[in-house]
Design a protein that fits this description.
flat, 8 helices, alpha+beta, four-stranded antiparallel sheet, Alpha-Beta Plaits, three-stranded antiparallel sheet
């Protein structure tokens, strides 16, 4: 039994997953942040921690395993206990236990468990598809010295320093501004005249087209028989997410790829981060969706996850 897979599945939806007689894996949300020194953007995420004091069975993990493996609840509890006993024996021997997508466990000199979380996965579903990235530093150049050098060779300038010694330049600048304003005004007037003319011509063409349509008579002597199409409507609130894409064309391409593999793939809209979400399929039954998710993670995409959402 791959206990870490079941723990990982539950961490997407719960903030605390207790492994009976062993400890609890906890998550707490951390907001997005920017490292101004690097500079690097870090998306919001759930940070993992481990509490060895929380060992009382709350039934969450055992019930989940019982549903997935189709076994009685007590059998699931026994399997967890057996797996925990094996992990403890390895820890006592000084070995490091690596739980995939969760982290590493090791026994310290005082006999307590130290936990180092994995940074390869983000259990915050709202941030699915977001990853950290670094931006290049913006370099701002100052051109004042270059401009001053050019002004020495150019006879006409309108910089503040030169205007004091050459007052006639002030009037030249005012005249230039007046000519520019007049040019803009004339251009706008001419453009408005063209727009008005185009609108009138378009309205006249629409009136003529309406008149011809009203005069036309359509007679269908041999109408074709009505065709009935059977369209399967995809329903369900349990969606197996294949990915989220910032460019919609990429999401369309992903849907076609999944359909070619036999999945009932589709787009389910845009999430709060502006990403187009694509799902393998949707299910009305939770257990059926979990079984399908397990199969997809094993054969197709280990990063697939289950989204519970009622769509309009």
């Amino acid at each position: 039994m791959q206990l870490e897979n079941y723990i990982s599945d539950l961490l997407y939806r719960y903030d605390c997953v207790i492994v009976p007689h062993f400890g609890a894996f906890l998550t707490h949300r951390v907001s997005a942040k920017i490292n101004e020194t690097t500079p690097t953007f870090y998306p919001p995420k759930k940070v993992l921690s481990f509490n060895e004091q929380l060992q009382t069975n709350d039934g969450l993990l055992a019930n989940y395993i019982a549903e997935i493996e189709k076994v009685p609840y007590l059998v699931a509890v026994e399997r967890i206990a057996k797996h925990v006993k094996s992990i403890k024996s390895y820890l006592i021997e000084g070995e490091t236990i690596a739980l995939q997508n969760i982290g590493e466990l090791i026994l310290n000199t005082e006999g307590h468990i130290n936990f180092e979380p994995s940074h390869n996965i983000n259990y915050l579903t709202d941030a699915f598809g977001l990853s950290q990235f670094s931006s290049t530093k913006i370099t701002r150049e100052v051109y004042k010295e270059t401009v001053e050098e050019v002004e020495k060779a150019i006879p006409i300038t309108i910089t503040p320093e030169k205007r004091k010694s050459r007052p006639y330049l002030k009037y030249a600048a005012i005249a230039l501004i007046a000519l520019t304003v007049a040019g803009f005004a004339g251009s706008n007037y001419y453009g408005n005249q063209i727009d008005s003319h185009n609108q009138i011509a378009q309205e006249e063409a629409n009136d003529q087209l309406d008149a011809k349509v009203q005069e036309a008579t359509f007679i269908i002597s041999n109408p074709l028989p009505a065709a009935t199409l059977q369209v399967e409507k995809v329903t369900g609130n349990y969606h197996i997410v294949a990915g989220a894409f910032r460019v919609e064309a990429n999401s369309d391409k992903k849907v076609e790829q999944l359909k070619a593999k036999g999945f009932k793939a589709r787009k389910i809209g845009v999430n709060r981060y502006g990403l187009h979400e694509v799902v393998y399929s949707s299910y009305t039954d939770r257990i059926e969706a979990l079984n399908a998710l397990r199969n997809i993670k094993r054969t197709q995409n280990r990063d697939a996850w289950l989204l519970v959402k009622a769509l309009d």
